[in-house]
Design a protein that fits this description.
- Keywords: Carbohydrate metabolism, Isomerase, Metal-binding.
- It comes from Metabacillus niabensis.
- It is an enzyme of class 5 (isomerase).
- It catalyses: D-allulose 6-phosphate = keto-D-fructose 6-phosphate.
- With about 270 residues, this protein is an alpha/beta fold.
- About 30% of the residues lie in helices and about 20% in strands.
- It is built from 8 helices and 13 strands.
- An 8-stranded parallel β-sheet has the order 5-12-11-10-9-8-7-6.
- It is globular.
- Mean pLDDT is about 90; it is low at about 5-40.
- The structure holds fructose -6-phosphate (F6R).
- Fructose -6-phosphate (F6R) binds near residues 74, 179, 184, 185 and 216.
Length: about 270
């Protein structure tokens, strides 16, 4: 069943009480027909492009341009994590065929070195690990904001949310790693979901404006538990999207069905 998935993505989001909402996700009746059209919290899917099939770069990006809200670009330096993946150059390549916002996830020991390069590329979201921001957080967040871009902070599974309290009201996005950073296809760390719940409660209580993202191993196996925690953005990588089929259109259809089966919500 298409349920509008092959149509251009819905752009009618609005902000209610600081939380982005849109009719994109709607309740599903048992018989599979959509009845309840109440507006619910919008959930975004952001593909992690380090897990895409580079042989099919143009085909996959062209398809996803009409179905997702942003792209997740993992940049690693081989030191902060024992891997090297995408780079600012890759962002330039995606830009040639997409006007969607891009979110750079910096898994690097020296974020200062990378932030200016990403600013020069006008990368819409620049996300830095909290664990390497000590003594740099305010300067780098200001630098990103002064360039008219959005600043994000990423927390490893072991990092408590209290670590970012000194600057939490300044950040536009908080990403909770639900796997150890560095690789696709790792085991989901369930206890990290408590941080998503806590960040939602804190946002409501204090009126903060950040969006909450989860990153790592979101798939049929974990959609239900993630949905209960309630992030705004799901990073989908190999386990939830690209690894499902060689054909991106089929992968997307399977991912939508998986999400709907496990959460009872419809992606239209
Ligand atoms: O930051 C990372 C890895 O450090 C993620 O963005 C991965 O790209 C994603 O986790 C891969 O997808 P999965 O295979 O985990 O679903």
């Amino acid at each position: 069943m298409c349920r509008g998935r092959k149509c251009k993505r819905n752009n009618t989001s609005e902000l209610v009480d600081g939380v982005t909402t849109s009719p994109t996700i709607i309740s599903k009746e048992n018989n599979g027909f959509v009845e309840d059209k109440q507006i619910m919290r919008k959930v975004e899917f952001s593909p992690s492009l380090m897990t895409m099939d580079l042989d099919k770069f143009k085909e996959q990006i062209t398809f996803l341009n009409n179905h997702v809200d942003s792209y997740h670009i993992d940049i690693m330096d081989g030191h902060y994590v024992p891997n090297i993946t995408l780079s600012p150059w890759f962002i330039e390549e995606v830009r040639k065929i997409s006007d969607l916002p891009m979110s750079a996830h910096l898994m690097v020991t020296d974020p200062s070195f990378w932030v200016q390069q990403l600013i020069d590329l006008k990368c819409e979201w620049i996300c830095m690990h909290a664990e390497v921001l000590d003594g740099l957080a305010f300067r780098l967040i200001d630098q990103i904001h002064d360039a008219g871009l959005k600043a994000g902070v990423v927390l490893n599974p072991e990092t408590p949310i209290e670590t970012i309290f000194p600057y939490i009201e300044l950040v536009d996005k908080i990403t909770i790693m639900t796997v150890d950073p560095g690789f696709a296809g790792q085991r989901f760390i369930e206890s990290t979901l408590d941080k998503i719940v806590a960040l939602r409660e804190l946002r409501e209580e204090k009126g903060y404006q950040y969006v909450i993202e989860m990153d790592g191993s979101s798939s049929r196996k974990t959609f239900k538990r993630i949905d209960e925690a309630g992030p705004d953005i799901y990073i989908v990588g190999r386990s939830g999207l690209f690894g499902l089929d060689e054909d991106i259109e089929k992968s997307w259809e399977i991912m939508c069905n998986d999400y709907e089966d496990m959460t009872g919500k419809v992606i239209s």
